Amino acid sequence: MIDEEVEQWAGQRYAHQLDRKAQRWGHDEGSVVFAGRKVAMSRPRVRSVDGHEVPLRRYQAFAHPRRMEQAVNPRILRRVSTRDYAGVLEDVCEGYGIDKSSVSRQWKAASSRQLQELMERSLRDLDLCVLFLDGKEFHDFTLVVALGVDRQGRKHVLGLWPGATENAEVCGALLDDLIERGLSTDKTYLFVLDGAKALHKTVVQRFGAKTLIQRCRLHKRRNVQKHLPKKYHGMLALKLRVAWAMTDYEQARQELQKVHDWLASINQAAAQSLEEGFEETLTINRLNLSPQLRRLLASTNIIKSCLSRVGDGCRNVKRWRDANMVRRWVGAVLLEAEEHFHRVQGYQEMPLLIQALGNAVDTKEAVA
Questions:
Q1: Which helix (H) or strand (E) holds 205?
Q2: Residues 38-55, buried b or exposed e (16+ Cβ, 10 A)?
Q3: Beta carbons within 10 angstroms of residue 170's beta carbon
Q4: What is the pLDDT of residue 93?
Q5: Among candidates 221, 218, 178, 174, which has minimal Cα distance to 198?
Q6: What is the pLDDT of residue 69?
Q7: Which of 153, 160, 150 is nearest to 123 (CA)?
Q8: Which of 68, 168, 242, 256 is 20 to 30 A off residue 282, Cα-Cα?
Q9: Phi then psi for 110, rounded to 5 degrees?
């Protein structure tokens, strides 16, 4: 292929061609990426009739450093360790650049590029209606992950930031980043949040007091359980499940109030914990959604499900050096996982959710 390009410029070797655009100018040492490794080759050189070096595009394409990154990236994401990389390559030719340190450098470059792509891509054309935000522990580091669902029920990874949802500065920065990348503050969204007060506050500040927020029920249950002896945990989970499963908002609210009264008779701190965000645990009941959509929107489990691939994909990593390394790995795995995302369960009923969001906002504005 490269020789063909040389002929296009300089004509056939030893042929007399008066109108040739360039001439052969010997060879140089070079290399191309083939079969997941670098392969040494003698690189032909061509000069134009006025004496300038002619870049051979096919050689440049095969020799581009990103080709090695592209060879390393899918293998690492499929849990091939840098130490074992050479062992999974087909034995079709000799090459180099496949030792542990070289592969690690290529992976670092590839994952850095993927993280940059994830954190810089525009959100302007995503017709989002639901945003999930949650802080997740990853080894000794905490990341805040944002995931969106559009009107067709498709999931999109929006970004990940170092820090915790309890940190107002982190929450403000991540929301500002989403807005800067095209997330409109004028549209109606349902935010599903993990319950951190700082995150809740910054969402309201950026998107207005009429913003619809669903508090993650799993986080709420765990927070309440922290104030109770273990012997009450099972009963609490059952009572909350019964209340939240009710289709009618008023009935669900009354049942949840009974849970509050029961908690008050046992531990006042537990009752106060349920009071905080009480109404926001019932937002999806108030929207009168189908059971499938309520199950989807009741918690931030959708993020946990996405991140489950991360733990599997990173199992060969023995030492996490810093938050940047964690972000690179998590970002690369999430981007790879995103290619295989299915639409959310109940996506056929997304138009009903969009209508319900509009009606709820109109009701809030009328009350205000």
A1: helix 197-207
A2: bbebebbbbbeeeeeebe
A3: 21
A4: 43
A5: 174
A6: 60
A7: 150
A8: 168
A9: -65, -45
Separation of first and last alpha carbons in the chain: 70
What is the length of the chain?
A: 368
> What is the pairing mode between strands 141-150 and 155-162?
antiparallel
Q: Which tokens belong to 75?
A: 């293998």
CA distance 164 to 145: 10
Mean pLDDT split into 10-residue runs, the chain, 368 residues: 69 73 77 60 80 77 65 59 50 48 75 91 95 88 94 96 90 95 94 93 91 96 96 97 95 98 96 96 94 94 84 71 87 86 92 90 62
Q: What single-letter DSSP state applies at residue 53?
A: B
pLDDT value, residue 169? 92
Q: How many CB atoms lie within 10 A of CB 125?
A: 8
- 3-state DSSP assignment of residue 55: coil
At residue 221's C-alpha, the angle toward residues 216 and 226, to 5°, is 130
The Cα 146–Cα 143 span in angstroms is 10
User: Phi, psi at residue 83, to the nearest 5°?
Assistant: -70, -30
